[in-house]
Amino acid sequence: MQIFRRSDKSPLAEWWRTVDKGLIAAALILLGAGMVLSLAAGPAAAAKLKLDDPFYFVYRQGLFVIGAALVLVSSSLLDPVWTRRVSLGLFVVCFFLMAGLLMFGHEAKGATRWIRIWGTTFQPSEIIKPALVVLTAWLLAQREKFPAGPWAPIAFAFYAVTVGLLLLQPDVGQSVLVTAAFVIVFFIAGLPWIWVGVFTVLGAVLPVVLYNIIPHVRFRVNSFLNPTEYDTYQIDKARQAIERGGLFGVGPGEGTVKRTLPDAHTDFVYAVAGEEFGLLLLVFLTVLFAVIAIKGIMEASKQQDVYQRAAGVGLYAIFGLQAAVNMSVNLSLIPPKGMTLPLVSSGGSSLLGSALTLGLALALTRKQPESSLSHLRQL
């Protein structure tokens, strides 16, 4: 079906002709699935918090789903130059917000990751992740135009201060995710051998340091390796819920895990889906995430511009990796990370951050008009 005439040269018409409609559709389906699962888990979460309105989290999810859809589409409208400019602005704002968390942040469960705004909380680390990926890719791409510049050290400095602030919160899961994305971008942009050595040393030393200096990291690793000696209540309940759901699930509203787990509507929404809707829905969700990540990475790898190629691969990779981590925790394959399921879990920051990640990736991998490409080459 032709929505816009070929003679229509408006930005919206150009976007529709050049964006990957399959990936847009997959993202919107995930947002819809998150809305359905909010109906399943939201009332139980409201009851545990003794809220007057049992549908508080459902209404909240609906508002953020609309916001996420708008962020997804509006960010995918950007050209590569504006993608970098917007990312720089978001990085600067979120960096200062994360620094401010150390003084006035909202603490929950032993971590200070949120800022209270208008009666709700905002997690700036969800927004700084995609911004850092884009900036790193652009900085490393400058080596082709200006080989003498210290682009790799500058990119590493951006990464180091971001991870440093994440570890001070502390948020080890996000730190690992950001590190993986940074290494991927570095690799795609052309990784010098000296940096291979740097990353190898950091990869060997940092986990040992974190294990020894952060108590909850040590507890999670030990409880995963020796489950009989530690409290593994959450991951045990999540796995048992998925097993109980079987192939077709116990039915909408009939699950019990949402009433026993404190984060059933966020970190463990995958288990809620498995219990109430069965293995078929879990496979469907997993396939959607795999399609977005794999197809996106393949499209990004075809980009001739180094900046677009590295940033696109990094963004799709971080989206897919976060989904894989969340699902693996729910299946008891890895220790708990406190990481949400992109576009599905309840939570405004998570939804908006995931939508921004995918929107920027779509912006960098959609077909650009020749005029835009010429402009990009000049910049």
Structural commentary:
With about 375 residues, the chain is mostly helical. It has one domain. Helix 2 packs across helix 12. The radius of gyration is 21 Å and the shape is globular. The C terminus is likely disordered.
**Total helical segments:** 16
What number of domains? 1
| Low-confidence segments | 370-379
Which class best fits the helix and strand makeup? mainly alpha
Looking at how many chains there are and whether they match, the oligomeric state comes to: single chain
Distance between the termini: 36 Å
- Supply Rg: 21 Å
Would you summarize the structure shown here?
72% of the residues lie in helices and 3% in strands.
Task: Outline the fold blueprint.
Blueprint lengths: L10 H8 L2 H28 L7 H21 L3 H25 L1 E3 L2 E7 L2 E3 L2 H21 L5 H18 L3 H19 L2 H21 L1 H11 L7 H13 L11 H4 L8 H9 L1 H23 L4 H25 L17 H18 L4 H9 L1
Antiparallel strand pairs: 1-2, 2-3
Helix pairs in contact: 2-3, 2-12, 2-13, 3-15, 4-5, 4-6, 5-6, 5-7, 5-14, 5-15, 6-7, 7-14, 8-9, 10-12, 12-13, 13-14, 14-15
